[in-house]
Amino acid sequence: MSIRPQEPAPATPAPGRLPITELAEMKARRQPIVMVTAYDAPGGRLADQAGVDLILVGDSAAMTVLGHDSTVPATMDEMLILTRAVTRGSRRPLVIADMPFGTFQVSDEDAVRNAIRFVKEAGADAVKLEGAGPMLSRVRAIVGAGIAVMGHIGLTPQSATMLGGFKAQGRSAEKALGLLADAHALEAAGCFSLVLEAVPAPVAARVTSELGIPTIGIGAGGECDGQVLVWHDLLGLYEGRAARFVKRYAEIGDSIRTALEAYAADVRERSFPEEQHTYAMPIDELALFEQAASDQREYADDRG
Ligand code: KIV
Description:
- The protein folds into two domains: 21-255, Alpha-Beta Barrel (TIM Barrel), CATH 3.20.20.60; 267-303.
- Residues 1-9 have low confidence and may be disordered.
- The longest helix is centred in the last third of the chain and has 20 residues, at 283-302.
- It has helices at 21-29, 41-49, 61-64, 76-89, 108-122, 135-144, 173-189, 201-210, 231-235, 252-268, 283-302, and strands spanning 33-37, 54-57, 94-98, 126-128, 148-154, 193-197, 215-218, 226-229.
- With 304 residues, the protein is an alpha/beta fold.
- The chain contains eleven helices and eight strands.
- Bound molecules: 3-methyl-2-oxobutanoic acid.
- 3-methyl-2-oxobutanoic acid (KIV) binds at residues 37, 56, 58-60, 71, 98, 152, 195, 197, 218, 228, 230.
């Protein structure tokens, strides 16, 4: 077990939100923690209604909703807008804002300033940041400012180029030991939880059993304390090759396309809108309107 640094006073989650301390208790009870990404108010509301514990406003938004081909271009301003929408739409789940690339790498000051913006301007309950090593000091600084931090190791998409692409991490004994050491260091730096992405299941299981904080896996096997999936992957809204760890629970993209085709056909056939979709007006007002409009038209025509 690693030694926790001195506990700062944590930023208070909005009333009604799952207390962050509940997560450690869930780990102790071996009750799986459910996390999903969301990027807007309806997404936040649906995740809440489904009883999800944690919502991550992931920088995956850069790809899933903003159309980029990596997470790197996500900006602070974009992430603030999306996070604000999710916090407005949800009540119970803790909302974790993903710190986009470039907003925490340069200095502890930058990291704290941007984490504070997520809490103050967007109502986030916590932030997530990728990496260990030099990022440990960022974690300490943000936690020191009273903001809860979720770590993220394994496949860290913001540094995918350095990792040789989007591929599993920790597949040699040496690399797996490195991940284990990073996990301990992040716990010691004050993270309340840790995402393990694309890590062999036995390595994730070992990390999970050694840490006191909950691990949330994505492509890290069933022994993690919780799981996370990306909204668009889980719901069948993302086109392109899915990662091995994705399970699609719906084909919402197909449903949306079918609905849009039906709408387009109705508009083109003039079978939409129907009577029930239109507004009526009193018959005498209509007669007055028709008469006045015709008079105006005649007057305009006469004047050439
Ligand atoms: O940005 C994101 O959605 C993430 C998850 C894949 C953990 O970081």
